[in-house]
Amino acid sequence: MQHLPPETIRLLSSSQTISSVVSVVKELVENSLDANATNIEVKLENNGFDKIEVRDNGDGIKAIDVPVMGLKHYTSKISQHEDLETLQTYGFRGEALCCICGVSGIIITTKTADDEVSTQYTLDNIGHVVSQKPSHMGQGTTVTVLRLFKNIPVRKQFYSTAKKCKEELKKIQDLLMAYSIIKPELRIVFTHNKAIVWQKAKVSDHKKALLTVLGTAVMVSMVPFQHHEQEPEIFLSGFLPKSGSNSSLTSLTSPDRSFIFVNSRPVHHKEILKMIRQYYAAQSQKDSSHIRYPICFLNILVSAAFVDVNLTPDKTQIMLLNKEAILSAIEKILISIYGTLPTTMAGEPSSECANKIEQLSSDMLSDCRTIPLSETSQVTEATIPCSKTKEVSGDLGKEVNAVSNVALIESSEKSHKPGDNIFSKPRDATVMDICFENANNLSLSLETLKEAQKSIQIEQDTVEMSAESWSMGHGVKDSAGQIIEPVKILIPGKIGGQNQTICDKDTQQTPTDTSPSKYQSKSSSNVVQDKTGQITLYDLISNHTIRKALSPSALFMQETRLKLLAENPKTSLQDISVELEDMWKNLNEEEKKKFEEKAVKDLDRYNSQLKRKHKRRAPLSNQQILDKLFESQTQKKTALEPSRKTVEVPFSLSSLKTQLQQLSKSFDSGGERLQLINRLSCYNGWVIASGRKLMLLNPFRVEEALLYRRLMENHILPTQTLDTPISLSNSLLGGPQYIDRLCKMQKECSELNGVVSFTDPRLVFNGFKIQLIPGASTAEQHLHIQEMARCLPYYGVSDLQEILRAVLTKNAQRVHQCRPLKVVNYLEGEAVRLIRQLPLHLSREDIEDMLVRMQQQLEKECNTCIHGRPFIHHLADLPEPE
């Protein structure tokens, strides 16, 4: 054996601790949090392989600690192993910076509150400081990692693929989200290639932090909780999804949003997450909820002596001394929110279990899949091994926790009607009878039950519906379970010694109800006087179908049936009918009254349609019938005239002419006054009329011109005091005439020291504040520019000269007449920027007000915007009235 070189030891240990980009970010962010930072900025370039920068505003690194800050096992967090029992920081091993130095280059810039300036340090691959220089950074520490994995090309290539880079960025974002939740007062900005990926501002509590991270839609479905255990001392707090909440909002297919913290440290604890998933899935209504992870936030506060965080290099795996007590406390919270788990004890007698199963399936027994024993693969008994934690979901629509054997045995007989022709004779059928025996005879797996259920379902579907039964009209049943028959065959029978025609099995009388008088009266005529078949929804009147009027209960069931079928698609029609009847009975009077009103309206509709039916023609005599039979001409059918709804409207042609004349007079008297008509929905323009011209108005161009005019007249450029006042002279302004004209402008009263300030709006509005300093004589007076506008680049004396030139040559008396070219361009840009912030659709009142301002403030020749585009487009000319 031989001792490894120090360089190899450093590289091996460093690559074990710093395994990816996210591990570098995690170590540096935790160092910032340990330094009491409230503002952290994480910047990556090229997915972190070129540059990783973590900047904070923490306490900084003291000058005395700088020589050893990058050396291994130097730390300010602990001094001995016993200090782990009172650990309050994220880091404690003193390995992070040294390991980062071993796989990359590192630069640290730091400043404490006592330092005058910050200092930038460059470290070598061992962690020694090799150079330093002053820096402009403020208080805090900035760690810059360059060329990550420069000496481990295999790992760099592995993480350089597009998929891995995307995964690493997502892991970093999830990590920063976790810290931002547990530290609400923390501000975090995450940037990649100079583009902000995610950021979070400072907030006051955990709820607002979660609101920032998860969003409002998720937080509405979350419920807060707090729990405190005295012995051992445990404090739990956080947020969990509400019972019955939408699982698509409150759960994900990955545990990325299941935030679990132990003493404010983000950890991965499988047992805690498994328990939360178990209770969440039990109350969720979706079948796929058992494979989803609930969105949750759980912070566990226990004594540091009960937690071992020194398990893995990233410190995300921990061991708990009082794990059972913590799990028990968490379970109490879950039970208070979601209720107990639906489990069954293993020692219950089989009779009690059978009663429970019978109670669960009594309402939905019609959905239970049955199969004749003679047509199965002789499966008479199937045992399914289940445990207390396994849930078997059958066709009964409810979950049954099975702990023992499930047997399929023959229990009842089912007779079919002679007309069914499905079986040539009555056959034996089976129902599912769940019985519980000893748990030692478990043989078949849960998959066996699923396969058996599939075969049973296919067999039952074949029995219930076949091509032969469908062709004979036995495929469709009504709500009462009776087969709907389009044609009823009347079968003669003998009851009470007399021939009797039996129309329906529902009309058969029992021997106790038969009497000769009744049958004598019924058999006296073969004419069918009453409707004896199924109740139909439509009446056939004059070759037209008319929908019958429905009762209030029928209307209620019609509206509610679709909702019930959508919620429980596996429920049979019989169960839905029973449930609808119960719902109708329990409906309050106010709701019943609504359906009674609907029923009255439906009855009125039915009666009105009946009145519209055509009267039958009088029956022809025998001679007329014979004449019709021997006619050679064919019968011509007269078309039915459709009924039309008519409404009488008063109309007067003379009043219409009078109104037209008045309208034409108003057009002529109005001159060029613009009248607003309406807005075009497909175009943000308005149709207006002026005289007999129909035009299209663009309101934004008009508003742009109005705003630009207002800025030109009233806008004052903000000024800043110059460090060195600019002295004005004849040579600087271009001649003595400019100095003379400047001295004649409006001034304010002189101050005590004799200094006079110019207050002329043509100077002040354009961003110049000039002072006149008196001297011994007029020739010794000095003009200085004390303040000048800084919002425009390269704004200076040349622009003042342009103002004075406009005053001299053009006699500009108002501000908008002597604006310099730079100011004109600046105000045009400001007008365009402000107009783009207006809403897309302006109200009618705004347009009318804008038209009034346009006619008052703009000259007649001003009909274009600042870009030279016209306000109004001509559409058409209205014709002259005859």
UniProtKB/TrEMBL annotation:
Q: A GO CC term?
A: MutLalpha complex
Gene name? pms1
| Polar residues bias locations | 500-514
Q: Which UniProt keywords apply?
A: DNA damage, DNA-binding, Nucleus
Q: What residue ranges does this record give for the DNA-binding region?
A: 546-614
Cited InterPro entries: DNA_mismatch_repair_CS, DNA_mismatch_S5_2-like, HATPase_C_sf, HMG_box_dom, HMG_box_dom_sf, MutL/Mlh/PMS, MutL/Mlh/Pms-like, Ribosomal_Su5_D2-typ_SF
The molecule here is called PMS1 homolog 1, mismatch repair system component
Upper lineage: Eukaryota, Metazoa, Chordata, Craniata, Vertebrata
HMG box domain boundaries: 546-614
Q: Any keyword DNA-binding?
A: yes
Say yes or no: keyword Metal-binding present. no
Pfam families with a match to the protein in the record: DNA_mis_repair, HATPase_c_3, HMG_box
Q: Which biological process, per GO, is one annotated for this protein?
A: mismatch repair
GO molecular function ontology, one term from the record: ATP hydrolysis activity
| Similarity field | Belongs to the DNA mismatch repair MutL/HexB family.
Fetch the SMART domains from UniProt. Answer: DNA_mis_repair, HMG
PROSITE patterns, sorted: DNA_MISMATCH_REPAIR_1, HMG_BOX_2
Provenance organism:
Callorhinchus milii
Q: List where Low complexity composition bias occurs.
A: 515-525
Region Disordered, annotated ranges: 500-527
Q: CDD domains from the xrefs?
A: HATPase_MutL-MLH-PMS-like, MutL_Trans_hPMS_1_like
